[in-house]
Design brief:
alpha+beta, Trna Endonuclease, Chain: A, domain 1, five-stranded mixed sheet, about 30% helix
């Protein structure tokens, strides 16, 4: 007899992540950002959102948590994820021939508690 899995199926986790990213996209559009790309993928990962605000490209990592188990969304941006985020954004700039563009890294943390969302937008973060 198989023991029950402790983590949700990958499709379920992906669906939750996409829901959080859509909340972030809606928020960014309302805040005046233009969305350039969603879920831009490379073999080692993806960029959740690439946006533009005025003349600046903004790479946005989104973390969505439905429960406090495992910490808040803000606590989930590990050094490994930060490294992948940086590498992915550098490749995006190269592939789109905008290496000289002004850019920044933002982080949006969304925590869901009893049907309500708390969204925190950390702008121009420094990656480790």
């Amino acid at each position: 007899m198989k023991s029950p899995s402790k983590s949700p199926p990958k499709e379920h986790t992906r669906s939750i992540g996409m829901h959080g990213e859509q909340i972030a996209v809606d928020y960014l559009i309302r805040a005046g950002y233009e969305i350039i790309a969603n879920n831009w993928q490379i073999w080692w990962g993806e960029l959740d959102i690439v946006a533009q605000l005025k003349q600046k490209i903004v790479f946005v990592e989104v973390k969505f948590r439905r429960k406090k188990l495992g910490g808040s969304a803000k606590e989930s941006l590990s050094p490994k994820k930060q490294s992948q985020f940086r590498r992915s954004s550098e490749l995006f700039l190269l592939k789109h021939d905008v290496q000289s563009a002004d850019y920044q890294y933002d982080f949006i943390a969304i925590d869901q508690q009893i049907g309500k969302y708390q969204l925190s937008h950390f702008k121009n973060i420094e990656l480790k």
